[in-house]
Each structure stands twice: as C-alpha cells, then as structure tokens.
Amino acid sequence: MTEGRLGQATTLAIGSVVVAIAVLALKGVAWWLTGSVALMADALESIVNVAAAVAALAAVHYSSMPADDNHPYGHAKAEYFSAVLEGALIVVAALVILHESWGALRNPRAPEQAGIGLLVSAFASGVNATWALMLMRRGRALRSPALLADARHLWSDVVTSAGVIVGVGLVAMTGILWLDPLLAALTAVNILVSGFRLLRESVGGLMDEAVPPATMDRIRAIVAEQAEGAIEAHDLRSRHAGRFTFLEFHLVVPGGMTVREAHDICDRIEAALKSELASAIITIHVEPEGKAKQKGVPVL
C-alpha cells in the first residue's frame, strides 16, 4: 500500500474508533432510559464494535510495516488476525446476550420512557449506517480486510438495531412483555451467525486461500494474451495475504530464446497483471521448451 493509501486506511481506522465510542454512548443511554433487554443487547454489541475498531487500527498500523529479515513478505496478514479477533468477540457478545435474554424471559418487565429511548437508539443506528457504508466503499478501494470486516460487522449491527427498535416499539404499544427478551435472543443469533461467518473468512485468509475462480480465469486469460513468444504457462498458483495477491507460475519458452527476450515477456505479463490486480506480487519461473506439460495455459 502506498503511503497515501496507508494514511487513508489509518484515518478510517481512527474514525471507526471514534464512531464506535460515540454509538456505544448513545446506545448505553437508550438502554439506561428504557431498561429494555433488547436495547441492552444492542449496546453490548457496540462494546464489541469499540474493541474491534481498536483491533482494526492496530492491525492497519502493523500491516503497513515494511518487510524485514524476519518477515520478508511483509506484515499484511496482521489484518486477518484483527478480523479473527473481531469474530471471536462477536461470538462472546452473542453468548452473553443469550444468557441475559433467558433471565429476562423468565422475569419480563415493561420498558420505560420507550419513546425517547428509541429515538436515541435510532439516531445511533443512523450514525452507524452512514459510517458502515463509507467504510465498506473505502475498504474495498484500499483492499483492507480489517476495514472491510469492521464495515460488515457495523452493517450487521445496523440491521439488528432496526429490528430491535421496531420490536421494542411494539412491546411498548402492545404490552406483550416477552417480545423484548425474544428480540434480544434473535439479535444474539444474528450476531452469532455474523461472527462465525467472519471467523471462517478470516481463517481462510490466514490459510492462504486461492483467489476466486472468476479471478483465476481472468489471470489465465491475461497470461495467455501477454505471453506472445512463449510456449505455455503452467503450475499457476495464487494466494491472498491482506491487501496483496501473490501469483506464481512457470513460463515455458523456446530453448533458443535469449534471457533478455524471456525477461521482456515476463515484464509484459507482470505489467498487465498488476494493472488488473492492485498490489499483486508476481513470481515467474522461466523454463526451456522441454519442460512443457501440455496442460497449462497455452499462449495465444
């Protein structure tokens, strides 16, 4: 990531911390005003948001450190650790909410000052929604797993909060008290699913998952188009590491081709791939025609 993009990612991560603290304070006020266990669940998720935002800030900072002797491929995977931590925190929060929901279901009570409490909660959700949409857009542009994980979690929080607000309003209007803890439990289940999904995606990054099939097809097409003069490319492999995409393959060239000519072909392929995949790290191993496998990427 360039210095400018790094600065943008860091600024966004700091902004996430500030927004998370402000939303937590607002939701805490809404819970304090109403005593609603569903709004308590919403506030608890915001505590996770604060912790996750701090983790994302640390990950963005650490992942930006240049490669060194101990980490010759850089520190980009640090962002996945942040996403794993966030997923784990989400799961813990969901379990706490389920415990509180069970207690409230056994002894339900009506929310107090529901009107003003719900207005405060709605305002907090509006702030969250605005920030989540902006964070998702910028996180994609910067290819930051930590920022994207934070954005997805915030959007999940927005959807959950909307349901909670409607539900608590129904409790206040109908007097059906068991709806409040039921909504809290449903909130917890939604949070739990979100947490497990985030954990799965983050672990996939740590385990060097390959690029999606559609992206791999595009990579193969670019290699075929740009490798004029070569014979074939084979053993094409890929993996993600944070914002970087690592690609490596063997390029078979005629036995009489000079080193300079082979190098020019590699440069042409690398330039085309990097124009398609930002922050691509490409390794090409040149081989003589006797190494052709007849099952790789044929050159157009």
TrEMBL record:
Matches recorded under Pfam families: Cation_efflux, ZT_dimer
Keywords, comma-separated and alphabetical: Cell membrane, Membrane, Transmembrane, Transmembrane helix, Transport
Chief site of localization: membrane
GO biological process: intracellular zinc ion homeostasis
Membrane disposition: Multi-pass membrane protein
Transmembrane segments: 12-33, 39-60, 80-102, 114-133, 154-176, 182-199
Subcellular localization: Cell membrane
Cellular component terms per the entry's GO annotation: plasma membrane
GO MF terms held by the record: cadmium ion transmembrane transporter activity; ferrous iron transmembrane transporter activity; zinc efflux antiporter activity
Sequence ranges assigned to domain Cation efflux protein cytoplasmic in this UniProt record: 212-289
Entry-linked InterPro entries: Cation_efflux (IPR002524), Cation_efflux_CTD (IPR027470), Cation_efflux_CTD_sf (IPR036837), Cation_efflux_TM (IPR058533), Cation_efflux_TMD_sf (IPR027469), CDF_Transporter (IPR050291)
Cation efflux protein transmembrane domain sequence ranges: 16-207
UniProt similarity note: Belongs to the cation diffusion facilitator (CDF) transporter (TC 2.A.4) family.
NCBIfam families associated with the record: CDF (TIGR01297)
Official protein name in the record: Protein p34
Record organism: Neoroseomonas marina
